[in-house]
Design goal:
The complex is a heterodimer. By secondary structure, chain A is an alpha/beta fold. In chain A, about 40% of the residues lie in helices and about 25% in strands. Classes of the chains: A alpha/beta, B alpha+beta.
């Protein structure tokens, strides 16, 4: 049986070396600063992106890949090996039309016997990315498409995700605010503690005065869900390393963390979360 | 003058003279505040409470003693401000209930009524503290009952009551250590003694003409000059009917013509903003094709002109709240139930009580907070508080203010944040006067109030919300800086008039000639156990230089601490701090 091929999109925020190591095929979303279009995770470095984001008077726009973009990739992979199943894992459908494009592309594939599974990660950034990495690791070891799909769903359920944003403005302007909307408008220095609902909707699970209080609450919430379990921690940074590092240090001090990985919040997700965002993803090892 | 019984007119004179004496001595009572801070004035609060009682009494004058006393009690209840004001209202509530069916009261009737008042007040207060107005009233009433067994002269009885109350007042420092420390008697108790003194004067023959504002009167036997009774009637009239500023209570629906090409896009927040220019108690509920609007406005035409742009108006109800209120004042001999319903009418409760139509429901929660300063009020509003009552300098909100705010809110459950220990009782009293479910979060400072408001979670039950809010309020350390209004020594700190004193929660921790030094000493004390974030609310008397010096000092000495600098605009307190 042929090895399962793993496809994802750029919003999984998987570092390039990890993608290469596991042979993950990535399709980029696009970021548009006015007339200029950039391919996410390809054209712009994150440093360039965040400094432009801060300077830009208008919010950049993002655009999902077209069905044709996916169709090209699916057909190319099938041309290489028509019997290899494809597992294509994407940004939560409540946040983006990427999953929709992939689904349409799948229906357009006219190759006899093609096995394409388009999966809604119901997550974002590395919450999505860790499902992809897990899938690629399993594929490497010869797992079946069915097993891979089941395992990614399991990983989605058992991942703890929290993120801190410097301001809710970006989530609001980008229309991705979900249930965090209630916090908008307060003049006080309020940091919402954001997470994702099971379908990927952004939600504020709590709020705190200032980022230090917010970090303490995140630690508290994670302790409640994981206790003394052995954990892997993925830290996603943007342009504010100090806050992200402090959050990491608080987590490693209070939780039983065995592995730490780093990534960066990419340009598409960053468009909606803004500069100064930190995100952490935890799962049992 | 010998009197074996008093009727409604006699009692009205007693109340008038009592109120008058209290009014003229309000400043003296204020000066007895334990803390040398320039607000939380007991004298002012009691005076305003009593004035409200007198206005009601004048409107319902009767020769029937029970009815007169009931009128006074009603007015006191609605006008109650501050802890002493609330207790005063309860004393007379018990008093009037005891005499409800008595046309003329004997000395024994009066004594028993005084005792009833004391019982009522002790029941109303969650944790009665001895050495306060409660003790003064209790001692006086106990003595009155004993005295009335042997004596039938009402004047003699009141003289005894007055003397005993004064004696108990002088002993309050023995019961309440903080009074002894400062060297004052209890301020609320002093206020009550003035009222009793007025009772004695009235029974001795001093008179105040009802409704004659310029009457200057001599109180011959007691040789006390009774000053002009000026403000009460006019000021109260203003406070009552004319105080209803946005007096057209409007409710209607806008039917959205979604398919029509001419339909203007409906921007809810812009619409609310437009309404708020000349209105309050605004409630806008937007559904797909219908918008429910509730507003109190001075200009109903403007509201309709604005609204009709968005669609057809339907199910329109308008109520003139001033008219309602005037009618109310004119009516005589209302039962207590009717009277309370009147307060509800005032705030448009009658309309809110109509069964929900078109499937609209009330918001699950409403929040009412008391704030000092425009900036603080804005902070609360921006944090989802629906009504911000002004807890200005000495004008603590009355029970009636709370009742109005509660009834003006279309919410299933209402939380109140008094943000001052002297306002909690009035809020609690208001909660009892309304049938709406109300939970008081007993916040004693603005920082506690802010922390509690932020702990609110819309998805949770009222009980759990209360738990979280109370716990959040207990996690914050509050600090306030103000100018001392007199020399004193308290909590081991020597205080000089005009110096800046720093209060950490309820204790004075520093007194300094310089504002910056006082702030630093206070913050150092507040930060003993460290913290994550300090909130600075700048008020009247703060300067940019001092503010930046404070921020620099914090950054230098507590580098890990986040600073949230906010314009509070509060009077009398240049700086309010919160450490969390």
């Amino acid at each position: 049986m042929s090895k399962v091929r793993i496809v994802t999109d750029s919003t999984a925020d998987i570092p390039a070396d990890v993608r290469e190591k596991y042979g993950i095929t990535m399709i980029s979303l696009k970021v548009l600063f006015g007339e200029e279009t950039y391919l996410d995770a390809v054209d712009l470095t994150t440093e360039e992106f965040y400094s432009r984001l801060k300077a830009s008077p208008v919010l950049p726009k993002t655009s999902q890949p077209s069905p044709a973009d996916f169709l090209d990739v699916y057909e190319r992979l099938l041309a290489e090996d028509p019997t290899a199943p494809i597992v294509s894992i994407h940004l939560a459908s409540v946040l983006s039309g990427t999953y929709q494009s992939a689904t349409i592309a799948k229906s357009m594939v006219e190759i006899e016997g093609a096995d394409i599974r388009v999966i809604d990660s119901c997550s974002a950034s590395f919450g999505h990315g860790m499902q992809v990495v897990l899938a690629a690791q399993m594929a490497e070891n010869g797992a079946s498409a069915d097993d891979i799909v089941a395992a990614t769903a399991q990983r989605q359920k058992n991942t703890g995700i929290y993120f801190l944003v410097d301001t809710l403005d970006y989530l609001q302007k980008g229309g991705r605010i979900g249930k965090a909307a209630a916090m908008i408008g307060s003049l006080l220095n309020i940091k919402p503690i954001l997470s994702l609902e099971p379908n990927g909707t952004v939600t504020a699970v709590d709020k705190a005065r200032g980022s230090k209080k917010a970090m303490a609450k995140i630690v508290e919430l994670l302790k409640q869900s994981f206790g003394n379990d052995e954990l892997a921690l993925v830290v996603a940074k943007t342009d504010d390393e100090a806050t992200t590092n402090e959050l990491r240090d608080r987590l490693t001090a209070e939780l039983n963390i065995k592995e730490i990985y780093y990534t960066t919040v990419g340009t598409v997700i960053g468009t909606y979360t803004g500069p100064g965002t930190s995100a952490v993803f935890l799962y049992k090892v | 003058m010998s009197k074996r019984a008093i009727d409604g007119s006699d009692f009205a004179q007693m109340a008038l003279l009592g109120a008058d004496l209290l009014k003229r001595n309000a400043e003296k009572v204020n000066a007895l505040n334990v803390f040398p801070v320039p607000d939380g004035d007991t004298g002012t609060n009691m005076n305003l409470t009593m004035t409200s009682g007198i206005t009601e009494l004048k409107n319902k004058q009767s020769a029937h003693l029970g009815k007169t006393a009931e009128a006074l009690s009603k007015g006191l209840l609605m006008g109650a401000r501050g802890n002493s004001g609330v207790i005063l209202s309860q004393l007379f509530r018990g008093f009037s209930k005891s005499l409800a069916h008595v046309e003329e009261a004997t000395a024994m009737d009066v004594a028993v009524a005084l005792q009833h008042g004391v019982d009522m007040a002790y029941k109303a207060v969650v944790k009665p503290v001895e050495g306060t107005i409660l003790t003064v009233a209790k001692e006086a009433a106990r003595h009155a009952v004993q005295f009335a067994r042997r004596n039938t002269e009402v004047l003699e009885l009141m003289e005894e009551v007055y003397a005993k109350a004064n004696e108990a007042l002088q002993k309050t420092p023995d019961l309440l250590p903080v009074l002894k420390q400062v060297g004052v008697v209890d301020s609320g108790g002093q206020g009550l003694v003035f009222i009793y003194e007025g009772f004695v004067q009235a029974l001795s023959g001093a008179k105040v003409e009802l409704g004659n504002d310029d009457a200057a009167l001599e109180a011959a036997p007691a040789e006390v000059k009774v000053a002009k009774l000026t403000e009460p009637s006019s000021a109260q009239a203003k406070l009552e009917t004319l105080d209803i500023e946005f007096f057209y209570d409007m409710e209607f629906f806008i039917k959205r013509n979604v398919s029509g090409k001419s339909a203007v896009v409906f921007d809810e927040s812009a619409y609310k903003k437009a309404l708020s220019k000349d209105g309050d108690s605004i409630l806008v509920i937007t559904d797909d094709d219908i918008i429910k609007v509730h507003v109190h406005s001075r200009k109903p035409g403007d509201v309709f002109n604005l609204s009709v742009r968005y669609g057809e108006l339907t199910d329109i109800h308008i109520l003139n709240m001033r008219e309602q209120h005037r009618e109310l004042l004119e009516e005589e001999g209302l039962s207590s139930e009717v009277n309370l319903a009147a307060a509800e009418l005032l705030a448009g409760q009658a309309i809110d009580n109509r069964p929900a139509e078109h499937g609209f429901e009330r918001a699950p929660y409403g929040m009412i907070a008391v704030a000092l300063g425009d900036g603080v009020a804005e902070l609360f509003r921006s944090s989802d508080v629906d009504v911000v009552l002004s807890g200005g300098q000495t004008m603590n909100p009355s029970t009636e203010d709370f009742v109005k705010a509660i009834d003006g809110l279309s919410a299933e459950h209402i939380f109140i944040f008094p943000n001052n220990s002297n306002i909690i009782l009035a809020a609690e009293q208001a909660a009892q006067l309304t049938e709406r479910p109300v939970t008081i979060i007993p916040t004693k400072t603005i920082p506690q109030g802010i922390a509690a408001v932020l702990a609110f979670k819309e998805d949770e039950t009222p009980e759990r919300n209360k738990e979280w809010m109370v716990s959040a309020a207990s996690m914050v350390i509050s600090g306030q800086v103000t100018k001392a209004v007199r020399d004193t020594s308290i909590d081991g700190v020597e205080i000089t008039e005009g110096h800046y004193i720093g209060l950490k929660e309820k204790s004075i921790v520093t007194s300094e000639a310089e504002l910056l030094a006082a702030c630093q000493a206070l913050l150092a004390s507040m930060l003993e156990d460290e913290g994550d974030i300090v909130t600075i609310l700048t008020g009247e008397g703060s300067t940019e230089d001092t503010t930046s010096a404070i921020c620099e000092w914090i950054s230098e000495n507590y580098s890990d601490l986040e600073i949230d600098l906010q314009n509070g605009g509060q009077p009398l307190y240049p700086y309010v701090f919160a450490v969390e």
